[in-house]
User: Fold this.
Amino acid sequence: MPELLEVEYYRRLAERVVGRRIASVDAPDAWYLRGGLTAGELGALLDGAVVRGARRQGKLLLLDLDGDAVLGLRFGMTGRLVVDGVAAIDKLEYSSGRREPRWERFALRFADGGDLVMIDPRRLGGVELDPCLDALGPDAASIGPAALGAVLDGGVALKARLLDQSRLAGLGNLLVDELLWRAHLDPTRPAGGLDAAERRRLHRVLRRTLAELDGRGGSHTGDLFVARDRSTGCPRCGRPLARATVGGRTTIWCPAEQR
DNA sequence: CCGGATGTTCACCT
DNA sequence: GAGGTGAACATCCG
Assistant:
């Protein structure tokens, strides 16, 4: 899915709807609504409401509405956002830029005629009213070194811990692989086994990686991902990359450099 | 035709 | 309780 970087692009796009009044809600796919909410209930709650803000926590996009209502948008692996006909991202790595009407899972129509539309071929995303944020860890884009250090404990694989959204919100498979490759850390190491210098290095590299890939255009623009696509070796040393399942996800790393 | 893909959740193991 | 695995969701792509 969109990882933190893509959802942040979505959030910036969603700022366009702040201050605008919702005229109607389209939720043609009941399965897309989480928490047992029906399209009718959602319409009754949202019709006439004004969007007051667009926030992001991890991979969750949050629209603040009048009163205390919050609408949570989740994009799964193939969800895209289109506002007033403008897409935040032309295409995703594992989903074409095509836009079939049946992929339109949710939409807010505004009183001024514009709209906010979620396109999601695989339906892995969803919409939730007042999502519980307690289940999300601190956002990876703003976490401090001490808090990141606290995330790293236990015998679980370092990569699995960094992907655990309840401990650290926002990183997905591609970003974690790129991050660990840049930090020269083996994804299979126990999360609690890093020494103080390694934890500091991980935090420094995290900030740098997010800033750099944000500028390049997203999670799929990392050096490691590009190398993996072309099946050349490690972009730094040229030696063969390893591929295995770690934390339940396909993982690429350089065994020679990542320790 | 087959396998795998930026994610989340849940059942079922050890 | 901690961790791991595999399935499910639905579609595209090589």
In short: The mean pLDDT of chain A is 93. The domain at 4-129 of chain A is CATH 3.20.190.10 (N-terminal domain of MutM-like DNA repair proteins).
